[in-house]
Write a structure and sequence with these properties.
Length: about 60
């Protein structure tokens, strides 16, 4: 396994543990979100949606 894939797995495990969800569920959710994002949207739309999601989560923390 390459270093990037190993790092992705480590980060997935950390995030799932922090949010108390099973790693398999987290992986499935990411896969579904990626497929849905690429299915019907242009790159500009995807970037805007991701930026809105990031902004939303930062507002929730503050």
């Amino acid at each position: 396994m390459n270093k990037i894939k190993i790092r992705e797995i480590e980060l997935m495990s950390k995030v799932c543990a922090r949010n108390e969800i099973p790693t398999t569920l987290g992986k499935a959710l990411l896969k579904m979100a990626k497929n849905e994002a690429y299915k019907n949207n242009t790159q500009a739309t995807r970037v805007k949606e991701y930026q809105n999601l990031i902004d939303f989560h930062f507002k929730e923390k503050n």
